[in-house]
């Protein structure tokens, strides 16, 4: 019997806030991933890069400020860098966990390019938070210098960049080949390196950060996954989030999810893209389900004991 395929999308807390924290965080994340692999599931891992890509851009911009170069690093190049350094830590942590459990598993990280539509309206309306949280004063200073900022789900202000919808995963065939060969595959890091096709069919990076949950939903649909698991900083999705009458959701249909979206129950740039990604995945074929929960609760969630499941 064919093994069930699960796409696991890792949020910020699975990676830690800086390079030191990342080393520790991925060790814990790797245990969760290998637990699921041991249940006989084919695992494809994706991850975010919001804090990391902001940090890289900042570091690169500081080189310009320091006069060490006059060339700014394009955002898609920073996305590629984030895929590399997050991917290698994840890959090595999963490999080590497999080794500790005496499992002879294969793990690969794929630098993944994701095509977007250059006419996507998102290029005119930046919504993707990147980098660290800022104070209101820092955000206002950025705005005055032409750097868009936005309040992020009640947690502070952050720089925001364009986040077009992912259209096509260019390395899809490579991903399928490696999954079919039994690899745990790390792909679509940071939503994928955003590219557009030029007139000669060349792929050219474009200034954006694709939402990793949207990219994960597209990937899950295209590789025929059974389950999309979005691991984040909350055990369940809520309505009336942060209010006195907050209510956790365990199991909702896509129609109920759409009603809640219409009521603006989910914050833009954080929970909203997750729920929208889940809806698109559920609609891509019958029986497809998305679980949203905490990293530590992934196994319990897959066993139906916790988390929020969104289905047709
Ligand atoms: N309705 C909601 N229910 C639960 N969490 C919500 C809701 N609206 C906003 N959030 C926030 O969204 C966060 C998850 O989004 P985010 O931090 O962007 O995810 P990621 O883990 O992918 O980095 C939660 O930790 C919570 O603070
Ligand atoms: N690219 C992306 O969606 O990153 P986060 O999940 O860290 O926001």
UniProtKB/TrEMBL annotation:
Pathway(s) it belongs to: Metabolic intermediate metabolism; carbamoyl phosphate degradation; CO(2) and NH(3) from carbamoyl phosphate: step 1/1
GO process annotations (BP): L-arginine deiminase pathway
Reactions performed catalytically: hydrogencarbonate + NH4(+) + ATP = carbamoyl phosphate + ADP + H2O + H(+)
InterPro entries attached to this UniProt entry: AceGlu_kinase-like_sf, Asp/Glu/Uridylate_kinase, Carb_kinase
Listed Gene3D superfamilies: Acetylglutamate kinase-like (3.40.1160.10)
Keyword hit for RNA-binding: no
Keywords assigned by UniProt, alphabetized: Arginine metabolism, Kinase, Transferase
Keyword Kinase attached: yes
Residue stretches making up the Aspartate/glutamate/uridylate kinase domain: 4-285
One GO term describing the cellular component: cytosol
Coiled coil: none
GO molecular function: carbamate kinase activity
Annotated transmembrane regions: none
Family membership: Belongs to the carbamate kinase family.
Name the record gives this protein: Carbamate kinase
Organism encoding this protein: Suipraeoptans intestinalis
Gene field: arcC
